[in-house]
């Protein structure tokens, strides 16, 4: 209700309404492009390839592209090369001193890193487009001539570059994070198809209304849990000592450091799924009747028996590992402690310096464990539930995490825009 009230108030403000309309128009352009087919592809072969519903990593790509990957449209690669490039840059910023220095240079440094990320995105998109065209979908090519293949690769790469530009335009002139909203739009666009599939099964009698009711209750509980964890944070109190600089006195105020329970976001789930779905992707090249393909489907597939148990177990372990790994990258207790010490800040009862670093490490480790268990549960439970109630909700946990997370983040950005506008109006 609060979200609807915020949207209603924001819509009445002309400049914010303009930003909201601009964002919606950009997302409409994305959805239109997601239905424009790439030339030179046999659609029937593509439909047959995805008909099994167990295509490994391709299903993950299809999720983020809003079905564009399965239809091989101009936005088939979606924004995944940009996400990969951003993650690589984050890792390189820690590993390479020159990039770390660049990141600390303020606005100019961030502009340079953004430029490098763009170039890396185009390179990765080019590589992925080539692999997709001559690898995964080679059997769907109408012509395997050089110019036909080159045209498909260029179109796919250009599609990703355009989406990157679209996301940045939303950041500049719209509301929320453009890249996240593009992924969100792709996921939400598949919701009607999922509901239609459930309705057809109800009409056929393959599932009952009780089963659908259980599924709805489960989905609501998961969404409520996601909201609670995404919003949850441990507030570490910080006190700043008073100090005199010239004729002015600074410090003396109390504040806090908000340590998020889910500091890593949905990244650990994506990493885990990418690794676990890789063997299933290999089976696409082997053929369904090969012994290796049947073994992988039985032991490592969420659709196999006892594969679902093995898959779920590995998924939990990998998510916990990647949660700690990515949290370590995004949150540096030593840097936070040094910044506090340099500005005369301290945590009550904790000595500045090494003791503060150890304290932050201990607190972050504990709440990260809660976040990791939560991510593992959200990502794994849909797989188990789908086996029990026979409702296909593949990647449901990941979809819910992204959709709810982006919704919360966008509403937060909208509220910030309203506060800033009121603040500027007060000063004016």
Could you name the key traits of this structure?
single chain; two-stranded antiparallel ribbon; three-stranded antiparallel beta sheet; globular; mainly alpha; 73% helix
Total beta strands: 5
CA gyration radius, whole angstroms? 24 Å
Helix content: over 70%
Provide a count of the helices. Answer: 18
Could you give the distance between the termini? 32 Å
Shape: globular
List segments where confidence is low: pLDDT < 50 over at least 5 consecutive residues: 424-428
The secondary structure category is mainly alpha
H/E element order: HHHHHHHHHHHHEEEEHHHHEHH
Q: Main sheet, how many strands, which sense, barrel? A: 3 strands, antiparallel
Strand order of the largest sheet: 4-1-5
Residue fraction in strands:
5-15%
Average predicted confidence as pLDDT: 81
Description:
- This protein has a 3-stranded antiparallel beta sheet with strand order 4-1-5. Strands 2-3 form a two-stranded antiparallel ribbon.
- Mean pLDDT is 81; it is low at 424-428.
- Helix 1 packs across helix 18 (396-427) and helix 6 crosses helix 8.
- The protein has helices at residues 2-11, 14-33, 43-50, 57-64, 68-71, 80-95, 97-103, 107-136, 146-173, 178-189, 191-204, 209-231, 267-286, 291-300, 307-330, 333-342, 354-389, 396-427, and strands at 233-240, 243-245, 248-250, 254-260, 345-346.
- The chain is mainly α and 428 residues long.
């Amino acid at each position: 209700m609060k979200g609807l009230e915020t949207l209603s108030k924001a819509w009445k403000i002309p400049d914010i309404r303009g930003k909201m309309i601009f964002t919606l128009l950009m997302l409409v352009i994305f959805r239109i492009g997601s239905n424009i087919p790439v030339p030179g592809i046999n659609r029937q072969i593509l439909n047959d390839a995805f008909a099994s519903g167990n295509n490994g990593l391709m299903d993950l790509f299809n999720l983020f592209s809003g079905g564009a990957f399965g239809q091989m449209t101009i936005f088939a690669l979606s924004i995944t090369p940009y996400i990969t490039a951003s993650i690589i840059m984050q890792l390189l910023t820690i590993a390479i001193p020159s990039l770390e220095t660049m990141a600390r240079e303020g606005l100019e440094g961030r502009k340079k890193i953004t430029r490098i990320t763009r170039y890396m995105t185009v390179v990765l998109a080019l590589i992925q487009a080539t692999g997709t065209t001559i690898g995964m979908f080679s059997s769907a090519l109408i012509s395997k001539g050089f110019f036909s293949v080159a045209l498909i690769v260029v179109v796919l790469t250009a599609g990703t570059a355009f989406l990157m530009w679209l996301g940045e335009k939303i950041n500049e002139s719209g509301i929320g994070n453009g890249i996240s909203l593009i992924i969100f739009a792709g996921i939400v666009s598949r919701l009607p198809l999922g509901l239609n599939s459930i309705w057809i099964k109800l009409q056929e009698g393959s599932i009952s209304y009780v089963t659908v009711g259980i599924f709805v209750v489960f989905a609501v509980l998961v969404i409520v849990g996601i909201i609670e964890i995404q919003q949850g944070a441990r507030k570490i109190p910080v006190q700043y000592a008073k100090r005199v600089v010239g004729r002015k006195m600074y410090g003396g105020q109390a504040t806090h450091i908000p340590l998020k329970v889910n500091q890593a976001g949905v990244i650990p789930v994506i990493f885990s799924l990418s690794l676990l779905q890789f063997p299933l992707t290999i089976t696409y090249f082997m053929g369904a009747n090969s012994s290796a393909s049947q073994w992988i489907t039985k032991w490592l597939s969420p659709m196999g028996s006892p594969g679902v148990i093995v898959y779920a177990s590995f998924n939990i372990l990998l998510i916990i590992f990647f949660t700690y790994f990515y949290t370590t990258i995004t949150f540096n207790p030593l840097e936070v402690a040094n910044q506090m010490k340099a500005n005369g800040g301290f945590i009550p009862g904790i000595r500045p310096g090494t003791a503060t670093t150890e304290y932050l490490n201990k607190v972050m480790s504990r709440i990260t464990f809660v976040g990791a268990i939560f991510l593992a549960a959200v990502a794994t439970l849909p797989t188990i539930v789908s086996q029990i109630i026979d409702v296909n909700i593949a990647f449901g946990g990941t979809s819910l995490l992204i959709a709810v997370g982006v919704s919360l983040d966008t509403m937060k950005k909208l509220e910030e825009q309203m506060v800033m506008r009121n603040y500027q109006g007060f000063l004016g």
